[in-house]
Amino acid sequence: MTNHVLVERNVVFGKTEKEYLTADLYKPSLIVEDLSVLVLIHGGAFQTGSKEMYKDWGEKLAGEGYFVMAINYRLATSSYSTYPGALEDVEMAMNWLVFQANERGLDVGKIGLIGDSAGAYLAALFALKVRPFSYKICSVIGVYGVYDLVAECLHPVRERKNNMFEKLLGLPFKENERAFAGASPVTYIDEAVTSPTFDTNFYLIWGGKDQILNPSQSHVFYEKLTEANIEVEVTEIEDKGHFWFNQLPGIEGGTITDYPNHLLYPKIISFLKNTVQQSHRVNFSKRQIEVLAQFENLPLIN
């Protein structure tokens, strides 16, 4: 599918105690209603980065027929922690989408989240911990993300002089391991699957030579999701590290036509079609429907 894309930049969707939060919006011009939604969440060690990193992806995904929202969120400094604030910023973006749904022709029963690095963390944590019921997170695509803060602090791929996670939480790790566990997506897997509305599919992508975040983060998260019977797909790019999924100033690559994104793109489009565009709108998980069918001996549609 190829559509002419309409772009709105710097649209305000929320406000923190310090600043307004903005997003860039990408919309296909030929589709005016029932648009599936994708929210793009940038990386940057919780301290840098912006929505502009997803310009290429935003335009391309909108051309596939999605309403795309690339968001900014509050960033941490040595004196300003942003957990759980950054997660609340994601929630503000979702609530803005619900509020705008009728005017903009959005189907908020069909939402996918895409994030890289810190953005993958926020996407996974939001889907597993917040578990909304007035709209539906159908899928999460996490690219070289961190999903267990405790494990990453204990077993980093290399020593860090400045711990990005301590800045995120505003706490030293050694005395606050429980708080770091409580801020980790992996902690909420078992709780999520008990929710009758949780019905999120995952696609995890990472580089086998990552020197920023341990590749085991994605390996172990995949295993935990699978053990909980959550549907998950994976792709490891064995010869890549970090910083290749989207564009960084002064760094070559990061566009969809660059390696390995040009190989990933059709896989991502297929995954989104199956999990977002073709998802049912009703906020029942597949697991809950199967339970109800057993109680009443209802025939399931294959």
Explain the overall architecture:
- It is a single chain.
- The protein has a single domain (5-296), classed as Alpha/Beta hydrolase fold, catalytic domain (Rossmann fold, 3-Layer(aba) Sandwich).
- The chain contains ten helices and eight strands.
- The chain has helices spanning 55-63, 85-104, 118-130, 149-154, 164-169, 177-182, 189-193, 216-227, 261-277, 286-296; strands at residues 5-15, 20-28, 35-41, 67-71, 106-116, 137-143, 201-207, 232-237.
- An eight-stranded mixed β-sheet has the order 1-2-4-3-5-6-7-8, sandwiched between helices.
- The longest helix has 20 residues, at 85-104.
- The model has no long low-confidence stretch (mean pLDDT 93).
- It comes from Neobacillus bataviensis LMG 21833.
Topology of helices and strands:
Blueprint (H helix, E strand, L loop, with lengths): L4 E11 L4 E9 L6 E7 L13 H9 L3 E5 L13 H20 L1 E11 L1 H13 L6 E7 L5 H6 L9 H6 L7 H6 L6 H5 L7 E7 L8 H12 L4 E6 L23 H17 L8 H11 L6
Parallel strand pairs: 3-4, 3-5, 5-6, 6-7, 7-8
Antiparallel strand pairs: 1-2, 2-4
Helix pairs in contact: 2-3
